[in-house]
Write a structure and sequence with these properties.
279 residues; two-stranded antiparallel ribbon; two-stranded antiparallel sheet
């Protein structure tokens, strides 16, 4: 058992702190940012060889190194200012978009964000060979997926105020500003362009196609909704009855949105896109 507190002694998390801040992040952002931070640090200090985490299809196919489907999205880069900024933007915009993603069937909640990331990772894998023929594309995808999320968030909230180094502008311009800044700093930018392309594909399918063509082509898989729930994820509640039996509440169902989307509701994607007839 943990030691009891005595008198006015307070623990560090009583007034907030790194642990409290980290635990306050939404669940997917928490695990992605934590995994990216640990993987990047371990690789930079030599505990994990960088060649073991980057994307090499031949090693996956010939040696069954299936962890490479995950690790390229966790290694951000060698320690420099650009890597630190990328880690910050990863947690910041993953946090923002996870709080209010496009509603693709999960009520605009955590399941929809998980589906968006799955779509992003698959599209990044499929388009990587094409991107490699056009621009020198690095075999790591953390910044690529970060830009995917940032771009989709900017389309979801185009007029949200944002800034870079004190320069204020609307969110719709942020992805382009980020690429210009990377070019100005002499940093790699092809991975950001790659993420923007994949992000635009997702935005087009989830927001433009339903409005222009009247068809819903992207739906959050039912197994994600069953596992995560509708709306923002809520951990299962462990309610101990009088007889000592554990009663588990379904995850996410404790805090559903007021109007969760259903399969028969049509394209009720939320308020991210522009409605027909609006200027």
């Amino acid at each position: 058992m943990p030691p009891e507190r005595q008198g006015n002694i307070r623990q560090i998390d009583d007034t907030g702190g790194p642990r409290a801040w980290f635990n306050s992040l939404p669940i997917i952002t928490r695990y992605w940012f934590g995994g990216a931070l640990v993987t990047t640090v371990m690789c930079n200090f030599g505990f994990i060889p960088i060649m073991k985490v980057i994307w090499i299809w031949d090693n996956v196919w010939e040696n069954f190194e299936i962890w490479r489907f995950l690790t390229p999205f966790l290694f951000v880069g060698i320690f420099d200012f650009n890597t630190l900024m990328s880690l910050y933007m990863l947690q910041s915009f993953s946090n923002r978009y996870e709080m209010e993603p496009y509603n693709t069937g999960g009520g605009g909640g955590t399941a929809d964000y998980a589906f968006a990331l799955i779509f992003g990772t698959i599209s990044i894998f499929l388009t990587y060979p094409i991107m490699g023929m056009l621009l020198p594309a690095p075999p790591v995808f953390a910044r690529t997926l970060m830009m995917f999320v940032l771009y989709v968030w900017s389309k979801r909230h185009p007029t949200a105020p944002t800034s870079i180094w004190g320069v204020q502008f609307q969110a719709i311009y942020l992805p382009f500003a980020q690429i210009v800044l990377s070019i100005a700093m002499g940093a790699m930018y092809s991975d950001l362009v790659h993420g923007m392309v994949c992000g635009h594909l997702f935005y087009f399918l989830v927001d433009v196609v339903p409005i222009v063509y009247g068809r819903d082509v992207l739906h959050t898989p039912q197994f994600l909704i069953d596992q995560i729930g509708v709306g923002a994820y809520v951990p299962p509640a462990n309610n101990t009855g009088a007889a000592g039996n554990n009663v588990w509440s379904p995850p996410g169902r404790n805090n559903p949105p007021p109007d969760p989307a259903g399969p028969s509701r049509g394209h009720s994607w939320g308020s991210g896109g522009q409605r027909l007839g609006s200027s």
